[in-house]
Each structure stands twice: as structure tokens, then as C-alpha cells.
Amino acid sequence: MLYQGQMENSPAPDSNANRGNLKRKRSSSDASANESTSPDLASRPLVNPVLHTSHESSVTTPLTSISRVLALPVELRLELYRHLFQNSQLDIHRRNMMLIDPNDEFSVYSLVRNVDLSILNSCSFLRDEAIPSLNASTVLNIFNHFRQSDPLANLPDDFLMGVRTIQVEVNAFLHIDRTRLPLLRQVNLIHEVEGLESFVQTVATMVNATDPVNASMQDVIDWRWKLKQFAHLGAEEGFTVNMTVMWDCYSEGPETRLDMDLDLMSGMLVGLKGLIGNKEVAVIDAQQAVLDWEMYGAEEPDESIAE
């Protein structure tokens, strides 16, 4: 049976994490690694890319703020960490993985995005206490750029041991060593289709297609069998598995696509929605797609499709 060797050694956790956002953002994921590789972290900032809300913000935390945080009960500090890190993401692609310093276990945090990491530079006590929460909150976005190799091979074990949620191309999931992810709770499988039609044209094609799911998954070999195997793996190893096809549409304006949620055991379509920029719209028919595109997308809708 597929993956038998891995299943025998994998733990079976018993809880689920919230499903992460499936949005791909390759263009925003490039970050620079720390310039220093010294193992002595007490004398240097831990991370570089910190999101600030004003020009007065500093990478380091004022001593008065540190004292106030330290004075909080540990339960409140842990809740604070969960709030600070709730949107944390790490994009796994070759460029980012090349920036990880194998001699510096903390260099991976320079690549984390959508989060303010200034608390890690406050003091060693808060840093060590906060890092497990950061690891657990960070969603890994794993793109299919690694062929037959493990896309997580360059990530340190201490970081991966706390990861709970991954979003991964269906073909890349085959090559991940899950024994390095003992707390994995949520796997969001995705498959991207690069469409050549506009949003309205794609909706028209989708609603009139005899088998849109098979058409979107045709370049994944044995995809129905694979999805069933992934469902069995999740049940045995203790993580939840979802599957979404992301059908990108041609657009000179906002990024647009259709998201198709599939049932793993049957391979049937169980959910369908459209995205025009950051706006989620229902996929009903081409006429509704024209109205949605007119409101959220283009200045001149393609009305000919709806006729």
C-alpha cells in the first residue's frame, strides 16, 4: 500500500486546526535571511522582516513594555502570542529554502510573513516562550517546485515539530516526510489550473461542463485514487484533509479564480465559489458572473457571454 513505511512510524494526533487560507502569493513571499549566522542570539536581533504600523516603531521592544509583558500570568502571555502570530505564513519554494542557514536554527523566522515578530527581539525569555506558539500558528504554503525531493528538507526539525497546518500542492504532498511533522493537524491540498479564459467565460464553461472536476484534475495522474489514499492517511495519522482546485482566470485587472472543493473519497464537487480580487462571489451562471465582474472587476463587462 502507498506510504506504508511512513504510516507505521507516524503518530496519531487527536485534534484539528482551523483551515488556512488557500491564497497563493508567490510575489510577496521573497524575504531576505538574517545577515548574521552567529549562534549567540543574546547579542543580536533574531529576525529582520518585522511589520510596523508607524515610522516610530522599533525592532526592539522598550524595557517598560517588556516588564509589563513579563508581569502578565503565563496564560495571558500565551494568549498574547496566539493573537500576535495568528496570520503567520511561510512560503516554501526554492528561493526561500536557499536563504535558510543550516548553521542558524533561527534563520527560518526571517522568512515568515504577515506577522510582527518584534517580541522575539525583546529578551531571550520571551523569545523562547513565544517561539512554540509561532511555530504552531505558522501555515506552510508548499508549492510544487521540488520535483521528487522533500520540499521541507531544509527546514530545521525544531521548527517543523510544532507545525500544525500545511497548504500543499497535491503532487508535492507525496514527497513530504511526515515523520518530521508530529503535530500536523490540517492538510489543505490544492491543485492549480492556469486558465486562458476570462472570469465570465470560465464560469460559463464550468456551469455547462459535463465533468468539470475531471477536466480540472486531468494532469494529476490517478488523482481519484490519490485523494482516497490521502483521506485514509489523514484518518490513520490524525490530521484532517481538504482538497481544493484553484482555477485561475485570465485577467488584466484583479486576480480572479474559481475555487472547487472536492470530496476526497468520491472525487465529487462539494463546493464552488469565485474570487475577484479579495471579494468572494457565488458561482451561479454566466449572467450573474457578468454582474459580479461589472461590480468588482472590469470597467467594461463581457456581456456577450451572457447572451
Can you describe this structure?
There is one protein chain. The protein has an eight-stranded mixed beta sheet with strand order 1-2-3-4-5-6-7-8. The longest helix is centred in the last third of the chain and has 15 residues, at 223-237. The radius of gyration is 22 Å and the shape is globular. It has two domains: 44-150, no CATH class; 185-307, no CATH class. It is 31% helix and 17% strand. It has helices spanning 4-9, 63-71, 74-84, 94-98, 124-137, 157-160, 170-173, 199-208, 212-216, 223-237, 286-296; strands spanning 89-92, 139-142, 165-169, 186-194, 240-249, 256-262, 269-276, 279-282. With 307 residues, it is an alpha/beta fold.
Summarize the structure.
This protein is of the alpha/beta class and 307 residues long. The protein has eleven helices and eight strands. Strand 3 (165-169), helix 7 (170-173) and strand 4 (186-194) form a beta-alpha-beta unit.
Q: What are the SSEs and their pairings?
A:
Layout: H1 4-9, H2 63-71, H3 74-84, E1 89-92, H4 94-98, H5 124-137, E2 139-142, H6 157-160, E3 165-169, H7 170-173, E4 186-194, H8 199-208, H9 212-216, H10 223-237, E5 240-249, E6 256-262, E7 269-276, E8 279-282, H11 286-296
Parallel strand pairs: 1-2, 2-3, 3-4, 4-5
Antiparallel strand pairs: 5-6, 6-7, 7-8
Strand content: 15-25%
Structural class: alpha/beta
- State the major sheet: 8 strands, mixed
Mean pLDDT: 81
**Beta strands, count:** 8
Low-pLDDT runs of 5+ residues are: 1-60, 300-307
Our Rg estimate from Cα atoms comes to 22 Å
Given the structure, what is the number of helices? 11
Q: Tell me the domain tally.
A: 2
Strand order of the largest sheet: 1-2-3-4-5-6-7-8
Can you give the helix content as a percent range? 25-40%
Shape: globular
Q: What is the ordering of alpha helices and beta strands?
A: HHHEHHEHEHEHHHEEEEH
Q: In whole angstroms, how far apart are the ends?
A: 51 Å
